[in-house]
């Protein structure tokens, strides 16, 4: 399949933080997504409060 997001490869951003143990179901929610075309290629950036932008 092409052009489909098959999995969420981003690990929980604060998994190593001892306070994260209080929230075992915590995940990285994606709050913001930006898309641009550069040199004929589609570039996607996404992130949230607890996860820095990934491009």
What does this structure look like?
Helix content is 0%, strand content 35%. A 3-stranded antiparallel sheet has the order 1-2-3, with no helix packed on it. It is mainly beta and 55 residues long. It is elongated, with a radius of gyration of 14 Å. The two termini are 21 Å apart.
Helix content range: under 10%
Distance between the termini: 21 Å
Question: How many helical elements?
Answer: 0
Low-confidence blocks of residues: none
Number of strands: 3
Order of helices and strands: EEE
How do the strands line up in the largest sheet? 1-2-3
Largest β-sheet summary: 3 strands, antiparallel
Short description:
This protein is mostly beta strands. It contains no helices and 3 strands. A 3-stranded antiparallel beta sheet has the order 1-2-3, with no helix packed on it.
Draw up the topology in text.
Elements: E1 32-38, E2 41-48, E3 51-54
Antiparallel strand pairs: 1-2, 2-3
Give keywords:
elongated; single chain; 0% helix; mainly beta; 3-stranded antiparallel β-sheet; 55 residues
